[in-house]
Structures are given as C-alpha cells and as structure tokens.
Amino acid sequence: MDFEHSERSKAVTAQVRRFVEQRVVPNHQTYRDQLVGGADWTRWKVPPIIEELKQEAKDLGLWNLFLPDEKYGCGLDNRDYAPIAEVTGQSFIAPEVFNCSAPDTGNAEVLVQYGSEEQKQQWLEPLLAGEIRSGFAMTEPAVASSDATNMRATCEVVGDEVVLNGQKWWTSGAGDPRCAFYIFMGVTDAQADRHQRHSMVLVPADAPGLEVLRMLPVLGHYDDPHGHGELLFDNVRLPKRAIIAGAGRGFEIAQGRLGPGRIHHCMRAIGAAERALRRLCERAVHRIAFGKPLANLGGNRDIIANSRMAIDQARLLTLKAAWALDTMGTFGALTDISAIKVIAPNVLQSVTDAAMQIHGGEGMSDPELNWLLVMGRALRLADGPDEVHRGMVARLELKKYR
Amino acid sequence: MDFEHSERSKAVTAQVRRFVEQRVVPNHQTYRDQLVGGADWTRWKVPPIIEELKQEAKDLGLWNLFLPDEKYGCGLDNRDYAPIAEVTGQSFIAPEVFNCSAPDTGNAEVLVQYGSEEQKQQWLEPLLAGEIRSGFAMTEPAVASSDATNMRATCEVVGDEVVLNGQKWWTSGAGDPRCAFYIFMGVTDAQADRHQRHSMVLVPADAPGLEVLRMLPVLGHYDDPHGHGELLFDNVRLPKRAIIAGAGRGFEIAQGRLGPGRIHHCMRAIGAAERALRRLCERAVHRIAFGKPLANLGGNRDIIANSRMAIDQARLLTLKAAWALDTMGTFGALTDISAIKVIAPNVLQSVTDAAMQIHGGEGMSDPELNWLLVMGRALRLADGPDEVHRGMVARLELKKYR
Amino acid sequence: MDFEHSERSKAVTAQVRRFVEQRVVPNHQTYRDQLVGGADWTRWKVPPIIEELKQEAKDLGLWNLFLPDEKYGCGLDNRDYAPIAEVTGQSFIAPEVFNCSAPDTGNAEVLVQYGSEEQKQQWLEPLLAGEIRSGFAMTEPAVASSDATNMRATCEVVGDEVVLNGQKWWTSGAGDPRCAFYIFMGVTDAQADRHQRHSMVLVPADAPGLEVLRMLPVLGHYDDPHGHGELLFDNVRLPKRAIIAGAGRGFEIAQGRLGPGRIHHCMRAIGAAERALRRLCERAVHRIAFGKPLANLGGNRDIIANSRMAIDQARLLTLKAAWALDTMGTFGALTDISAIKVIAPNVLQSVTDAAMQIHGGEGMSDPELNWLLVMGRALRLADGPDEVHRGMVARLELKKYR
Amino acid sequence: MDFEHSERSKAVTAQVRRFVEQRVVPNHQTYRDQLVGGADWTRWKVPPIIEELKQEAKDLGLWNLFLPDEKYGCGLDNRDYAPIAEVTGQSFIAPEVFNCSAPDTGNAEVLVQYGSEEQKQQWLEPLLAGEIRSGFAMTEPAVASSDATNMRATCEVVGDEVVLNGQKWWTSGAGDPRCAFYIFMGVTDAQADRHQRHSMVLVPADAPGLEVLRMLPVLGHYDDPHGHGELLFDNVRLPKRAIIAGAGRGFEIAQGRLGPGRIHHCMRAIGAAERALRRLCERAVHRIAFGKPLANLGGNRDIIANSRMAIDQARLLTLKAAWALDTMGTFGALTDISAIKVIAPNVLQSVTDAAMQIHGGEGMSDPELNWLLVMGRALRLADGPDEVHRGMVARLELKKYR
User: What is the rounded distance in angstroms from the CA atom of residue D78 to the CA atom of residue D340?
Assistant: First the structure.
C-alpha cells in the first residue's frame, strides 16, 4: 500500500489550496449576497461570482481535476485526486469552482466511459467546459431505492423512440437555472435478467413531458441555487439514440458510477470534517467561560482528541479505498469503498455536532456549521444508507468463512 | 417515590390526548397553509386556526395547565403536569393551543411568584388569557451566557427610572406579532455580591430604544411565526416600578425560573421522542426492501429496542425530577433536574436521527422529523449546554466524598 | 406507578444495610482468608465465617427476604425487595448471608409454587433453613440454549421411574460442598407440542450416574467455592415422583422462573454499580496527578456524571419492572423485564470499566473491581443474552403497529 | 505516505505466518499442558516446548525481528516490522518464540542505544540469544506513575556505588524463572531539573536487598510463567557502572523507550483483534439458533461490519505511526503514536467483547477469548492510560491554534 501522492498531485493540491484560501473563501459572502435563493425555486439565480471564479480556475488549469481520463480530464488517479478533493471539501462552493461538483462529475464519467461520440459532443463537452450543469434521475419516491428491483419508472423502446414515464426525486441540481440535461434510469424490459432490465437515457431539461414538480429541502435547506428536485416524466419521447450504451445496460452503468465517482464525497467529507474540527478548536481556544478557555473545561479535550483520531483514521481508509480502486478496480475495493461511505459521513456529522455544541446558541445559526451538518447527515443516505454499506462489509467478511 | 398521577391528572391527560388527536393534529396542515412565515420575519402572520383552537381548549378548561398556582393556574403539580406535557410534546402547535408554551410559561411563573399586583394586572392577566405573548431576554451574543458573571447588559436605576442598555439574543417569541412584552435581565450593581448584581425588568415590546435586529435560524429553521430574536436595548427608559421584585433580585428570580419551568421542556421532549419512535416503527413495519419489511433487516430491531429503553428510562427520570421538585423543592431535585436536561434532549435527538435514517431521502425533508430534530438539537443548548448540566451532576456526586 | 416502598421494606432495608456495613463487609477479608478455593474444585472448602454470619442474620429475621410467599418466605413483594437486594448487591457474600443467593432463590420459588408436599419437605425446607444449597441444570454445551427447542437432554418416563441423560453446563453452585440437589430440565416427549415437551426433575447430588465433570471459569474466575459446573447425567434413574408438577410442565415452570426470580440479578447489579461508582469517586477525589485530584482532570467528571445518570435510570426501570410484576404479573411486565436485563448488566460493566481505568494498574488486580466486572460481563449472558432481550423489547414494540 | 512493506518484510512475514500456523498454534495445548502455573508463582515452570520452538525459529533466522539495529537485530524498520508483529499478535506465545516479547524488546533497545560495551556483553547478548529474560521496574504503587514527577524510588550515588531503594510494581516478567536482570528507574538528584533527576540502573535479579514480594493478577490472570511483579529494593548496592549512560539520564532513556518499542503493542493488538474477529465470524457462520446461523440474526452483521471497519482503520493508523517514526522520528510521530495507543487496545477490547458475547456461556471460559480480553483491557493502561494519550493528542491539536 503506497499512499504517497505524485509530485503533480502535490503541486496541484498546493495550487488548489492557495486558490481556495485566496480567492474562494474570501468570496463566500459575495456569493451569499448575490444569491437569489429561498423556498421558491423558480426565482433562483446563480451568483455571478461563481462564474468569475470558475473562469479564473480554468485559466489556471485547475479544472476537471476529478476526471482521470487523459483526453477529457486531467489524468489524476483517485489517490492523487484525494487530497485535492479534501481541500475543496472545506468550502461550500469550491467543488463547483473547479468544475468538480456532483452530480456533474458522475455524469461526466458515465459519458466518458459509455457515451457515443454524438452524446459526448452534445452533452459532455459543454459540461466539462463548465457551460451547463446536469442532473441524475434514479431515486424514486414511495419505494426503497436502495433495492434496484423496486424501480418503477419505465423507458420503453417504441420503434425509433424511447418513451419515459415515472416519477423521480432527489435529483440534485434540478433547480439550477443552468441544468441542461438529466441522465434518467428506468426499466426497459421487466422480464429480462435482474441486471439487464434497466436503461439510462439522456434527457434534455426542456424535453416535453418532463416537469420539475418541486425542490426538496434537506433539514430545511434547499441547497439553492442547485436544489434537489422531484421530477415527473410523463410520456417523454426521445429518439432512441438518447439511450446510453444501448438498452438494458443501465444497471451496469450504475454500478460503475457507484465506484470512483462516489468516493469523491468521502474525500470532501474528510475536508469538511477538518473544517469542523478547526472551528471547534478555535472556539475552544478563544472562548472564555468560568475564567478559562473552553479547551480547559470538562471533557472538551477528549472530544478534540477523539475528533482528530476519527478524522485521521477516516482519511487513511479513504486513501486506501482510492489506492485499491486505482490498483485493483472496483471489485478489489468493495470493502473499503463501502466502509468509507459509512465512516466519512458519520465522522463529519459527529465532529460537526461537537463543533456546534461548543459554539452554544451561535452554533445553531452559524451558516458554515449548518452546511457541514447538512452535508454529513445527508451523505449518510445520499450515497446509499449506512445500513446497506454495513451489510456489504459484513457480507464480504463472512464470505471468508464459508 | 410515588409517581402515580392523581385522578384529576389522568382525566385531564385523557382529555388533552383526545383534543390533540381530534382537533390539533388534523389541523397541522391548515396551520402550515395559513402561516405566513419564511426568512423575512417582518411579514410573519399568525395562522388564525391557532386562535380558534385556543378558544376551544379554553372553553373545555384545558388551559394554563402548566401553572400549579391555584388562583391563576389550574393547580396541578409537576408530577401531574408531566403526562399532559408529554402529550402536547407530540404536536408542534399543541403547547400553544393549551396556552402552555415557552417562554410564556416561565414568564407567567415569574410574575405569579414575584410580580406586583399592578404588574400582574398589566401583563400576567392578558398572558394567561392567551391574548398576548411574551419574550425572555437573558442570553447575550459574544459571551458565554452559561456563566452569569459574563452578563454585560445593564439596567441602571436613575432616579425614578430604570435605564436598559445592551444586546440580547435567542429571545424566543420576539418575532411573534402578538409579543407584547419582554422580561429583560441586566446588571444593576456590578459591585454587589455575585448573586445580587442583576435585576429583571418588564419591557413593553414597543418601548422606545428597543429594536428587534433579526431572527436567528436554528439549523435553518426560523420557528416562524415565533422566532428567536436578537434585540438591541439602547437607553430604554422605564419607570422604576417595571423592575420585578426590586433591584438586585434578578439572579434569585432566574434560579427559580430554572426549576419547574424548565423541566417542561424535558416532559415535552419525552413526548416528542415517542412521536419519533412511532414514526420509526411505522416505517419499519410498512416499508419493504429486499422483499422484507425494514423491521426484519439488519440491526433495525436493536435500534427500536434501544430507543424504547432510552425513552422509558428518560420518562422515569423526568417523573423522578418532577416528584422531587414537588416534594423537596429545587434543591432536593438538583441532580435529577440537571440529569434529565442532559438526557431528554439527547434521547430525542438520537431517536429522531434513527427515524430519519429509516425514512431514507424522505426523512431528510419530512417536516415533522425536521421539527423533532431541531427541537432535540436545540434543547441540548437552550436550557444550558449538556456540559454545564453534566458538570452539576458530577459536582453533586463528588460532594458526597469530601 | 407507585414506587414507594412499604414501611416494612424501609425498615428491613435499613437493618440489612447496617448488618452489611457492620458485620458483612468487615468480614470480607476473613472470608477470603478462610476460603480454600482455586482451580482444583474438588478441594474447595466453604469459609466457616459465612455460616456464622448466616446464623446471625437468621436470628435477626433477615432471612429469605426474596421470597414473597407468606408461609415460607417473608412476604415482601418485588417492589419491596428491590432496595434490599440492591444493598446486598454491594458485597460479594451478602446475598448468601441473608439466604438470598442464586440459584437457590429461583429453585425455592419453583418448589414453593410447583413442588409436592413431599418435595417441599425434603428439599425446600432445608434449603430455606440454609442447611443445604442447590443447582439448576438447564443450559447445555454445544447448542444455543437461548432457543429452548435446541435442548438435547432427556428425561424419559419408564414405568415408575424417570431416566435422565445428557450433558449440562453453567450449573452454578455445582462445586459447592453443600450442594445437595439439582433441578434438571430435559425432554420427555419430543413429539409433544413445543411447550409441553420438557419436564423438570429433582436430582439428589449423589444420584448414581450423575457426574460433575469440571468447573467453568468466568474470565478466569471460578466463583469458588460455588463454581459453575459441567455435569454429565448418564442414565440417572429416579422414582417418578422426583418430577416437579408432572411430566411435560418443564417449559411452563421455566417461564415462571424467568420472571421475578430473575430481576433479582438486576436489583443486585444496581447495587453493584453503585459500589463501582463509589470506588470511582473516591479515587477521583483522593488520587493526585499533575498536581490535581483526578476529578479535576480531563473528562473524568463527565464519566462520573454519565455513570450517575445511567445508574439512576436503571434503578428506576428496575423498580418499574418490579412494580409491573407485582401489579400486572409477568405478562404485563415483559417489556420492562427484558429491558432491565439488558440495561442493568451493561451499566454495571461500563461503570466498573471506568472505575478500573481510574485506578490504573491497581484496578487490574483489585479483587472487588474484578468481582464487579465479572458480574457485569457474565450477567449480559447468564440471564439470556442481551440480543434475545433486545429482540423481545423490539417485538413487543412493533406489535403495536401491526 | 508510503505504507508499502519491503520485499524482505513481505518474505519474513510470510515465513513467520507459516511458522505460527504450522508450529506455534498446534503447540498451544502442549504449552498449556506443560505449564506449571497458578496462584503460587514460586512454583512456576517454563514449558520446555517454548525453548524448542525458540530454537527452531532462531535456526530459521526468524529472530529478534523487532530490533532495527543492523548489528544486533535484523535491520527491519517499524513499517517493515508491523505486519510481522501483527502476525505474532494472533498467538499468546508467538512473540516469545521469535524473541520479540516485551519487556525484553524495550530493554534490548535501551541497551543497544545507551548501554556500555560491558553492559551489552553482560546483559544484551544473552538476552538477544534468548538465554535469559528481563524486567523493567518503573511503575510504583501508591502514586500516579503517569506523572513521572511522582516517582519515589531512589538511586543514590555513594562513592563508587549506586544504592537503590523503593518499591515497584507491574514489573512484567518478574515471575519468570529465567528473569536474570531488571532495568530499574529511580531518582538520583531530586533537586535537578525535572528531566535530569532520574537514572536507570541494571540490577541482577539475585542482587542482595532485592525481593520479589508477589505477582499481581490482571482480571484474575497471572500471565504465568512470566507474571507482573511487585518488587522491594531495600538498599540494593551496585557498582556505579551499573548505571545506564550515566546518572541523570533516566528520563531521556525512558522517553526513547516509549517510542518505537511501544507501538509494538499496537501492532500485536491489531493482530489480536483480527483473531477475535475471526472467532466472531466463525461462530456467526456455524452456530445455529432459531433455525438460522447467528450471522443472520439481529444486529450481528452490523457488529461484524463495525469490527472490520474499526480494525482496518486502526491498522492504517498504526502503519502511519510506524512510517512517521521511521521517517521523522519520535517527535514527528507524537500524535500518531498517542492516538494509536488509545485506539488499538480499545478496538481489541470491543471486538473481543463482541466475540465473547456471540459465544454465549462458552465465551466466558474460552481461554483464547479471555487472553484477548485481558490483553485489550490491560493495554488501555499498560502503556499509559487512554486519558494521558488523549490529552497529548488534544494538546498537539490545540497548539496549532495558539
């Protein structure tokens, strides 16, 4: 196990860190000031500052860093991308600044790997250029989406067309005015083998029959101006060539997408947890009560030590998962990927809860601590619930004894 | 230890339960529909349905149940009020329906115990009639308010007047259009003995010099149309008779207010946790994944059992605290009160977190689960941080060995 | 719920406490000095001091306090016995001093309830007189005994005789030189209904064919001179009248025995946990490191507060279980009994672990802390594993929603 | 961070693993059978099988693997030794078989680094040859030894002699018939600077004035035939040249000894935890209750998954500590060393507790599970209490913010 990052990775990480510190963080407030957000998503407007920062990052070559593909991306493998993603995880807008934010990253990977030339030209290129954004429509209301056999949405092939029907939710990015297309997953052939029933289809955001019903709040937060949408597909008809890689390959593509694309969240969660610990420690050192800094009261040092130990262990396991992915592929990394998807969000949630607690009432309304808490809590479900990942770790462990 | 509730308590609890089930819960959606809330608190409007429900409850005599005082209240002691408060804790509007919601309850207790006849007539009577609401202005920004010696706001006695200066926050109810007065706490004589420095003053909401600066969100929630306000007192001048019980008695009054008035939160938290567990179990029974109800998957039954055990223990300790308060007064109940203030909110937070988790994405935006989570999380600070209460429990325990 | 103990219970508790403090604890060392114990159980000798103390307690009427039966016992119900058992739980020999130690207590209850007059005369009377001791042979090696259908031992009725075959283990008391009889459970009719297959039989300790194979250590401790035995029943032939209450009633008797007889362990565990907390606090107050008592270092106060809160809650739930048993019988108390069987041992184990930790190296070899740890750890299995009890709590909870 | 083990390390690990599996584990029972152990340490005899196995291992060159020194040891650094130590941690006698067991390892490191040529010849050489064993006499009864300023034992320089007085305990190995010498630490000059007060002295086990008072049990286990001794030094007079590296350097040497020598315990604890998890899983797969393997009941899979995740994270952090030690020295590795000393024993303790629980009654007396539990529990104190290590992690973390 070699977790050493390449020279190039170290250099890029340093550049990204500098850019985040000097350009991104100082513009957090500008972003908030410019944002037209709130409960009515139809009024949302993207803050112009984000496009300025994107252009700057692009000009510096700090762009599409997540994409290992040499042609479309920048050729860094998972191990090399990990420290970069960690740095971007410390700011709520940094991932987008470097064109490295979900769900575009996963969608781009799908298109790079499975897209036709025409599909790449139409959707991948503007996406990687940062001109448009996208959504991923898989999860459905009213059924347990962690079990793919529950999927109800359909994409029937009728002659030269494919016809989409069904309801989806938690389609992140659906509220973003720049969202130009979705990748939709549905059942094409309910009689086929379990793993060959589904297809994935590229759907323009303005396709007739597609309606965005509402944005779903996460603990009261809309993640404006991106949002998490509930979408109705009512007889959306598209030419057959909108199907990615051919009908029946949806499950296969989804599995691939669950690999590398998904540990990005963990990498960022580590950075976010570091941010929470920083806030915790700063408060512990500077806040005085009963004549002492909080760091010297009660069990606060134990909390700090436990947080440091948890984050360091989570980072190492994330690196191991990245290394395993790079050297052995998804199947060699299954335990590590599942494990880190449980651990990283839970560490983030608990360190953030502690950071909030030490901030007292102030912590309850601190925007950054709120963002961190929502991220940690939501990630315990967004990439599959803890329970499913724990089940996978146990299954692989028990296999050794059968 | 006799935790048996009186016949009257049992009867009232049954009535309250029926009213909550038949009148309050069915109107939750009406309340939400009528509410004019959101980030701009100056536009908030109280849903008319709440006043209708209040009138109905009042007509049934289900009114001011929290107040043990025979004259002003309904004569139930803490032990008898506990199961009633628990029932009201299962609905986000029920406490107000029965005129039993914070901070009015604590303010009423202060006025009953320490108010002059004039003060009672002016503020207590309309408050108990449900015609006005009120706020409590004690916590301050920028200092650790868990340590009372940190208080910076002042209320100087100048001739016949008392002059208030300072900034307060987390003044709950400050955004409510019906909020008519505040109880303000400030330093009158910084040279006096630690426990005789402070005074409490009744301040009309429209007093010149008093400005409501903003409402503070709790994890993004404004608790509209009540809100948690940040207030500026800039040379607010009032006649000296606005002081409660005379200058220098603020600390004494605050201590009293921290007793009974404060375990109401715990009683309601138990009810709220029961509500969370009900949601958890209903989901576990009715949701199917991988061919089974969630109740039969993984460790879900352990979570359910642990939740049941935690709630039952928390309820018993709350009853013990109530019983101790009733039979031995605040000083005989100190350990139990401190203990239950740690335990009840933590149980609520963890059961709710589990209920959210089992609801998957849906749990993230479920309004009731969000309300429960915010309540649990906020209560770990609102009545004093966990850390301070644990410190008190430990101090009293160690005292036995010195 | 009325947890108030009767005047008689209070008086007896006070007497027992005095006797434990003045006579039992001061003789702990004498007991240890007189004991012939160790790995070779065949050499074990009971310390004479225990018989002296038993006689003293008996003379004072502090005898068979556990037994609610008016005729054979002393007529205290579970609620009234709880504080007494708690006091005895603070000494490793006190339960025996008052003739209140397992498994004699459970066996006596079985005989009182189901025994024939002859059986009572032969076994119950000397047992209650403290002249003999006894064992309970139910658990078997090599199968999961938490599932009664796994039982392999047999007791066939052949003519006028009953013939016992099989292997048992964890038969507590089997190494005690005074152990005069066992209650054996085995399958009489494998074809009968699940709950009518088993019988219970009274077996003299010197019955031909019965061999005690070895004593099982618990974390290296033999609980000498009582021991936990592994027993071989090889064609043990007894007259049919040795069967308790008739063939086929074994399961019914076992269920009854799992009720009251079994929450005694929980009551004692609460007392034991109090003892551990006392040791923890004394050390915290008197031990100095880095210039301060340990109580003022790190998170020790949090540990103390958490221990106090856990014990107080566990005690209340034990009282609730006792009250429920007394007023509603086993079926009305199922959730509470199962819950407290999980909670009490776990609280004992964790408070003891903390007490050990604060004692440093000394804690590792402190006999009392060792005894407490072994008790806590073993009880998590001895009365059925945590997992089975949690399963029962969850099952009863979920039943409400079906 | 490069955690990759060298080719040589991989080869040696494979050899050690084979030897443990084929020669050591199959002789566990022989060792137990040959052992003369028990409470009376003066009768202890070392099982001859251990010397046979040592000779075999030595012949294969699997010897002194812990010692990085090229001349005396085998030149493997910490990173390379980690997987080897992990393998040996899976057997209770393997560390000794390869001459890699504490406290000899730490003592050898001290002599290699600080010993005179004469000292090396007299003590180091037979120690590394496996002909003798040794003890380390630092911890004292009645004071908090985690605070070195508490040390009371003295070693006064009087003319050409050094005179030792004081009482020590937890001197591991003191009961071993082969124990030939101790390294003793005492105060030479109480007036000197805090870090220059102490000296370390080599004391022959048969020095007049040195008396072994007793062996201390750990949770009832004596770790026979090695034992943890309490020693009395009563005017033990030795030539001055018995002092290691000169008077006043004791603290310096102790600090050095706390570095590499001490993460060996963590490496072995990881292996021990793997052993516990193996036992847990084997039981989960093969034991049937209620018609299913335990693996399919309740929350057992969550326990397995959590154990796997905890062990994997702990291993990575141990490797990081080893790597940091190798590349940056003790000061660059302080956080990691402190962290892993908290984490590794706690993981071992909790996985073992779970393994015991799933074994039911059998787990309580299983010798291997008992050994694992004692190791985990004792290590939470033996290398300094958790609390001290957590304090160090917090101190280093907070330093960043001052």
Answer: 14
Q: Whole-angstrom Cα distance, residue A134 to residue A179? A: 5
In chain C, the N- to C-terminal Cα span, in Å, equals 27
Q: Tell me the nearest-neighbour CA distance from D150 into chain C, angstroms.
A: 8
Instruction: Cite the beta strand spans of D142-227 per DSSP E.
Output: 154-158, 161-172, 179-187, 198-204, 210-215
Q: What's the gap in Å between the CA of A381 and the closest CA on chain C?
A: 24
3-class state of residue B177 by DSSP:
coil
Q: Inform me whether the C-beta atom of residue D312 falls under 8 Å from chain A C-beta atoms.
A: yes
Closest B-chain CA to D299: B299
Can you give the pLDDT at residue C326? 92
Interface residue A146 vs chain B (CB under 8 A): yes
User: What is the residue type of C390?
Assistant: R
Q: Does D298 touch chain B (CB under 8 A)?
A: yes
CA within 13 Å, CB half, B224: 23
Q: Count A/B contacts: CB-CB distance under 8 Å.
A: 111
* Integer angstrom CA distances of residue A357 from A221, A351, B393, C171, C374: 20, 10, 19, 50, 36
Q: Is some CB atom of chain B closer than 8 A to the CB atom of C297?
A: no
What is the pLDDT, as a whole number, of residue B149?
Answer: 81
pLDDT average, residue stretch A226-248: 97
**D81: which 2 tokens?**
């030794």
Within 10 A of C70 (CB to CB), how many other CB atoms are there? 8
B218 touches chain A (CB under 8 A): yes
State the complex-level ipTM.
0.95
- Asked if C297 and D387 touch (Cβ cutoff 8 Å), the reply is yes
Domains of chain D from N-terminus onward: 7-101 (1.10.540.10), 133-248 (2.40.110.10), 258-399 (1.20.140.10)
Helix (H, G, I), strand (E, B) or coil at D371: helix
Q: What is the DSSP letter of D296?
A: G
Check CB contact under 8 Å for D301 and B301.
Answer: no
Mean pLDDT of chain C: 95
**Does the beta carbon of C313 lie under 8 angstroms from any beta carbon of chain B?**
yes
Q: How far apart are CA B169 and CA A249, in angstroms?
A: 57
- What is the least distance, in Å, from the CA of A87 to any CA of chain B? 24
Q: d(Cα D174, Cα D214) in Å, to the nearest integer?
A: 9
**Closest alpha carbon within chain A to D304:** A394
- Give me the residues paired with residue D136 across strands: D183
Residue range D218-243, pLDDT digits in tens:
999 999 999 999 999 999 999 999 99
Average pLDDT, rounded, for chain B: 95
DSSP single-letter state for residue D43? G
pLDDT, position A259: 60
Q: Looking at A206-220, A281-295, B244-258, which range is the least confident one? A: B244-258
Tens digits of residue pLDDT in A148-183: 788 999 999 999 999 999 999 999 999 999 999 999
Q: What percent of chain C has pLDDT over 90?
A: 91
Give the mean pLDDT of C6-12: 96
Supply the angle between the helices C78-88 and C7-19 in degrees, to the nearest 10.
10
pLDDT of residue A181: 98
For residue B264, the cross-strand partners are none
**pLDDT, tens digit, for every residue of A269-291?**
999 999 999 999 999 999 999 99
Contacts of B297 in chain D (CB under 8 A): none
Q: Phi, psi at residue B362, to the nearest 5°?
A: -55, -35
Chain B residue with CA closest to A394: the answer is B298
CA distance C149 to C254: 13
Q: Which of residues 226-245 of B touch A (CB under 8 A)?
A: none
Identity (one letter) of the amino acid at C268? R
Res. B261 pLDDT band, cuts 50 70 90: low
Residue among D364, D380, D391 minimizing CB distance to C378 = D364
Say if residue B281's pLDDT is above 80: yes
